[in-house]
Structures are given as C-alpha cells and as structure tokens.
User: What shape does this take?
Amino acid sequence: MRPIIIILLFLFTNLGFSQSNRSYTFTLQEAVTFALDSNYAAINAKRDVLAALKQKWETTATGLPQITAGVDYFNNLKQPVTLIPGEFSGAPAGTFVPVVFGVPQTMSATATLNQLLFDGSYIVALQASKTFLDYSKNLEQKTSSVIRKEVINVYGSVLLSRENIEILESNKETLKTNLNETTEIFKNGLAEEEDVEQLQITLSNIETQLVNSRRVLELSKQLFNLTLG
Assistant: This one.
C-alpha cells in the first residue's frame, strides 16, 4: 500500500514555484507536460526532428518530376517601317510605299518537364535522409523519457523535503515543550540535570537538521526549475 500512497500523493499534490518572474502551480503530470514543452534539451530534440524532416523532403523533391514554364510577351510600341518600290503595290514607277511588317503584340509560352530516371547518389542520399530522420525521432523519444524521469525524481524530492521539514518542526515544538517542563521539574529537584542536557542536545540536533533540510528544499526547487527549462 505504501507505493500507492506515494503515487497518489504525487498525483494530487500541487507544487508552486517561481520561474522567470512568473509563478506556477504544478501537479506531477502538469510538471512533466511543461518540461516536455519548455526544457532546452526537449526543444533542441524537436528542432532536430523538424530539420531532419525538412532535409528528407528536400532530398525526395530532387527526384520528383521538375516542371519549368515561362511566358514571353512583347509589345511593339513602334513597329519598323520598310519602304518598297511602288510597282509592287500598283503605285507609279519611281515611287516608294511604306510597309509595316509584324504585329503590334506577340506572346509565347514554353514548358519543360525533367525527370530523374536513375541516379545512385540520389538513392544513397534518400536513404541517408531517412536514417537521419529515424535517428532524430529516436533521440527525441529518449530525451523525453529522460526528462520525464528527472521531473518525477525532483518533484518527489521536493515533496519529501517539505514533509521532512514539517516533521522536524513538529518534533522541535514537542522537544521545546518537554525541555521547558523538564527544566522546571529539575529546578524543583524532581529530575536529573542529565535529563535536561539530553533534551538540549536533542533539540540542537533537530535545529541543525532543520537548517540542512531547508537548504536541501531550496536546492531541490532550483533543480526543479532547471529541469522544467
């Protein structure tokens, strides 16, 4: 039953942290989701996958049919004029008649289709791009798995540190009460001085443990923020 209690504690306990001057409250699942979106390693892994996918499509595109098309348009604002002998058009001999050749506007269209039939280097490049894409996807999955595990571990560390501090603070208050009562009893001659000294030593140890536990909690929070990204 103990592991189930711990899991439920993780699932239903919220952690509040400040990151980049903003405050967040996380359940465990929310923390994992946030880290997978914001952790630098996760972001870089996703970028690598996108880059590999782009490279694969670029390599594939080089082997697809390539169509190029063009349209040429000409507008002759001033058409060339040629003088021909008048006899050709029935005019009197010795005269010349101006004649315009061509049309005012022209348009032409062209289209070219290129197809790569067989190229060994293309096949090698295509296979390499697929291999690189698979590698990038596997690396992203491994990165996500590592980040998820780190978040769970650090999240649990913060919870345990908080629980430990609460227990130590409760013990401290109990010891202070016992010490005060034992001191009064000692003053009345009904207790040994050794009893008072033992309680003082125990209280001092508890206070030292509290200082260390608070330091561990702060370090755990900082590590949690770093893990989230």
